[in-house]
Specification:
By secondary structure, the chain is α/β, with parallel strands linked by helices. It has 15 helices and 20 strands. The chain has a seven-stranded mixed beta sheet with strand order 12-13-14-11-10-16-17, with helices on both faces. Strands 7-6-5-8-9-19 form a six-stranded mixed beta sheet, with helices on both faces. Strands 3-4-20 form a three-stranded antiparallel beta sheet, with no helix packed on it. Helix 7 (about 185-195) runs parallel beside helix 8 and helix 9 packs across helix 10 (about 270-285). The structure holds NADP nicotinamide-adenine-dinucleotide phosphate (NAP).
């Protein structure tokens, strides 16, 4: 049984789910296609009404939904509640601004007049990860439903209850059948579904391997795809940084969501003059973090999402140490049942050591002391990923000059990479392509149709 709720705090199976049959998936696609014919003709006001209702229900059910997140993937409960709020904000943001974003855009051609009209393209498939089970879906579903598309969501197999709960919110909000459908199926089957000619576009958030599989299928069938993949964000601390603030944000940047964020600060790069002070304070704060049951409000670090994830992370650390990395803190599985890993800091990393290039998805920080700012920028860019990154300095103009040289989709000054409804989110290089959130996020799966008006009196 591949689709299961397994509580990572105990590693016990809570509930198992039957995968949908091929016939059931086929019927879901047919229903989404049929729903598109009417949904694409609804007004923005009607679409906004549905989305606002979904957001309202999400807030009403916040406690139950947050507990579901914590049960299925181990996020600490206060952060799970925060995720529900953030997801509702995103849904309302598109309900409130979608019509404005998709209004006809006048052009100024050399002759005559012209404008761009935005129209929905059809049924979309979203393949979503477990690390933010509601937020990731909100980023994909809200803009696209507002644009008039219909949605099929293949959620991660370890968060089936979250996937079903989101579909139920849409049902309860009065969504016509086929507007939003949850597909209970494994990832392996998702790529094949992209070939279905009723599906017009696909968006995947997850690993590079899954992204490559989906994108190659989309390319083969000439379909638009958006990929939001992994990252290994650099967190650069310059000489003129406020060190105490940088340390506080470093802890949040690495430990938020138990370290399982695509945009977590993963590589801490400090210039020589302040590196020792930063590392000492950072180590002390990570050492004091309280590990425990993620449902307990005093817990600061919960389990990883699954036993498999914890085994993989511990193995990455062990392989790195065998290749020459030094452990400053932690380095092992925590001594308790469940999918726990100790807060860990690795140093003495260089190319050839696994932790130098691999994404570490959990509470493991890589620390680098470098000669100067140029060396920090060079190291930050020495990654196959290009998602986010941070620069800490008290001189904002200085921060902007450094940010300009970082080869990623997002750079934050004096803050870890973060997210909110009105800021575009996405990466370059192996972190994927396309953007979610903000005005850019509603622009991905719409036809931008040129309508050109000529006067009948225009010459041939
Ligand atoms: P994953 O294994 O790629 O899973 C993500 C989704 O893809 C799941 O629904 C999974 O289904 C599905 N999937 C897996 N293999 C597939 C395939 N061959 N074809 C089609 N679909 C497939 O990702 P993960 O390791 O669980 O998630 C962590 C990764 O996601 C990290 O690299 C993280 O950085 C990245 N991430 C990126 C962003 C972003 O916005 N850039 C946000 C969050 C996470 P099953 O669960 O059924 O296998």
């Amino acid at each position: 049984m591949s689709i299961q709720t397994i509580n990572p705090n105990t590693n016990k199976v809570v509930k198992s789910f039957e995968e949908m049959s091929e016939k059931a998936v086929d019927e879901a696609v047919a229903l989404a296609e049929q729903a598109f014919t009417s949904w694409s003709k609804t007004t923005f006001k009607e679409r906004a009404q549905l989305l606002n209702k979904v957001a309202q229900l999400m807030r009403r059910e916040k406690t139950v939904l947050a507990e579901m997140i914590t049960l299925e993937m181990g996020k600490i409960i206060s952060q799970a509640e925060g995720e529900i709020e953030l997801s509702a904000n995103i849904i309302e943001y598109y309900a409130n601004h979608g019509e404005h974003f998709l209004a006809d855009k006048p052009l100024d051609p050399l002759a005559g007049s012209a404008f761009i009209r935005y129209s929905p393209i059809g049924v979309l498939l979203g393949v979503e990860p477990w690390n933010f089970p509601f937020y990731q879906v909100a980023r994909f579903a809200a803009p696209n439903i507002m644009a008039g598309n219909t949605i099929l969501v293949k959620h991660a197999s370890i968060v089936p209850q979250c996937g079903i709960a989101i579909e139920n919110l849409f049902k309860e909000a009065g969504a016509p059948a086929g507007i939003y459908t949850n597909l209970l199926m494994s990832g392996k089957r998702a790529s094949a579904l992209v070939a279905d000619n009723r599906i017009k576009g696909v968006s995947l958030t997850g690993s590079a391997a899954a992204g490559a599989s989906i994108a190659s299928e989309a390319g083969k069938h000439l379909k638009k795809s958006v990929l939001e993949l992994g990252g290994s964000d650099a967190f650069i601390i310059l000489e003129d940084a406020n060190i105490d603030k940088a340390v506080d944000w470093a802890v949040v940047g690495r430990m938020n969501n138990n370290g399982e964020c695509c945009v977590a600060a993963k590589r801490f790069i400090a210039v020589e003059s302040i590196a020792d002070e930063f590392l000492k304070k950072f180590t002390a704060k990570l050492a004091a973090i309280k590990i425990g049951d993620p449902m307990d409000r005093s817990t600061e670090l919960g389990p990883l999402s699954s036993e498999e994830a914890a085994v993989q992370l511990a193995d990455q650390v062990a392989r790195s140490v065998a290749a020459g990395a030094r452990v400053i803190l932690g380095g092992k599985r925590a001594d308790r049942p469940g999918a726990f890993m100790e807060p860990t800091i690795l140093t003495d990393l260089e190319p050839g050591i696994p932790a130098y290039y691999e994404e570490l998805f959990g509470p493991v920080a890589s620390f680098y002391k470098v000669k100067d700012e140029d060396a920090a920028i060079k190291l930050a860019n020495d990654s196959s990923f290009g998602l986010g990154g941070s620069v800490f300095t008290e001189d904002i103009e200085h921060g902007k000059r450094v940010a300009d040289q970082i080869d990623t989709g997002m750079v934050f000054i004096n803050h870890p990479t973060w997210t909110q409804a009105d800021l575009p989110f996405g990466g370059t290089k192996d972190s994927g392509y396309g953007r979610e959130l903000s005005e850019l996020g509603i622009d991905e799966f719409v036809n931008k149709k040129l309508i050109r008006v000529s006067a009948l009196s225009d010459p041939f």
